[in-house]
Write a structure and sequence with these properties.
The protein has ten helices and ten strands. By secondary structure, it is α+β, with helices and mostly antiparallel strands. The protein has a six-stranded antiparallel sheet. Strands 3-8-5-6 form a four-stranded antiparallel sheet. The protein is globular. It holds the Pfam family HTH_18.
């Protein structure tokens, strides 16, 4: 993108057609975009124009056009324009389980800095970071995710050997939580489903999927809320249907996960 081309004056977010386990967006913001928040997916993107600034792991990071961003699951971050020009970017949000399909139970790759110019990641993200209007075919997506998973592991220096932990137990817990996310799930249930004690299972889950079982459950509820809001469901009805105690309970979790209130998110995403 030509950086001399002025960016639109309004903030906007464009979303691609949903794909299981992955979300693709393109957005433009001026000033402050997102408050501090954290989600349970990888956030991997490319700055297209302007300076994309964010606080991440105790430091401010600045991404310039062409840089690749890699934010690890459950790491707090915010987002704002580094200059008065504003910034434009594309981002994909990938469930760690999709990378585990390729890594087969290896430790999740972690890039410390959050911003990189490594050509391996630039190449590996080229398919998934195309214009949101581009339709990615299923086989194309699977191949691109595998390439990205291995590129992340190579750049991060992730050991080839599998770490200690029960990957199958963690995967069973994830599948159970996914199927029962609209109701309260107890630790006793997870122990019974996985034949793993709660403390070991919590460690396994974080090791292989980057977050805790409760955070995973909460994020699936919030995913449901976002789908319902885009379909025109009221905040109160969406909160109840997704399994939250009430609207205020949902709103608190929503802001912590996405850095925006539900109403503000809908105003931008639904425009």
């Amino acid at each position: 993108m030509n950086r001399q081309t002025p960016l639109p004056s309004r903030n906007w977010v464009k979303r691609a057609e949903p794909i299981e386990g992955i979300e693709r967006i393109e957005a433009c913001f001026h000033g402050n975009a997102y408050a501090m928040h954290r989600h349970d997916t990888y956030a991997i993107g490319r700055t297209l124009a302007g300076v994309q600034s964010f606080n991440y792991r105790r430091s401010q990071r600045d991404s310039l056009p062409g840089n690749t961003l890699v934010l690890h699951p459950d790491e707090a971050h915010d987002g704002q324009a580094g200059t008065d020009e504003g910034f434009q970017y594309r981002m994909i949000y990938v469930e760690p389980a999709l990378f585990q399909d390729a890594l087969g139970g290896r430790e999740l790759p972690f890039l410390e800095g959050g911003v990189t110019s490594d050509p391996r990641l630039a190449a590996a993200t080229s398919t998934l970071l195309q214009n949101v209007g581009y339709t990615i075919e299923p086989l194309e997506q699977s191949n691109a995710l595998a390439e990205l998973a291995h590129a992340l592991a190579a750049v991060a220096g992730t050991p080839v050997r599998r770490p200690k932990g029960d990957f199958l137990a963690a995967r069973r817990a994830r599948e159970y939580l996914h199927a029962n996310c609209a109701r309260i799930v107890t630790l006793d249930e997870l122990e019974a489903v996985t034949s793993r004690d709660r403390w070991s299972l919590s460690n396994d889950f974080r090791l292989f999927f980057g977050t805790s079982p409760y955070r995973y459950l909460t994020m699936r509820r919030l995913d449901a809320v976002r789908r319902m809001l885009l379909a025109g469901t009221s905040l109160a009805h969406a909160a109840a249907a997704a399994g939250f105690a009430d609207q205020s309970h949902m709103t608190r979790h929503f802001a912590k996960a996405f850095g925006l209130t539900p109403g503000r998110w809908l105003q931008i995403a639904g425009a």
